[in-house]
Predict the 3D structure of the following.
Amino acid sequence: MIGSATAAAVSGYGVLELDRLQVKGKTEPETIYTVLGRLDTQGEDFRRLSELNDAMLAAYRERRWQDCLETILLCRELGRSFGLEAFYQLYVDRVRALIEAPPEAEWDGVWVAAEKRAWGGARRRLSGNGRACSALVLHGCDSA
């Protein structure tokens, strides 16, 4: 997991936005990303996943829950080879919870974490289609 400054400085690597997160002790949210490997080895799957992931995050932040869930299904299929199943399951769980208990009117799509380890913090080396990548193991969502 990397922050905005690191994501902007990384060149030649496939970077995917994960979330806008505000952790305990911080007053401003941070956009967090993951690095999925070298761009020259990612191909069309990464480009398509990146587009769909952006669409999913936009739907989530705009409270278009059904659009978000439908886009997650597409993301999960492409994201499987990058080891992102737990990431997309996290969003399914969040959206379902937000449908059941809608956020307040001023909600801006930022996930406010009650603790600094809310995203897990552990990394695992995964391999998909011969490509090694570093994927986040999400707290409570590790499917392995």
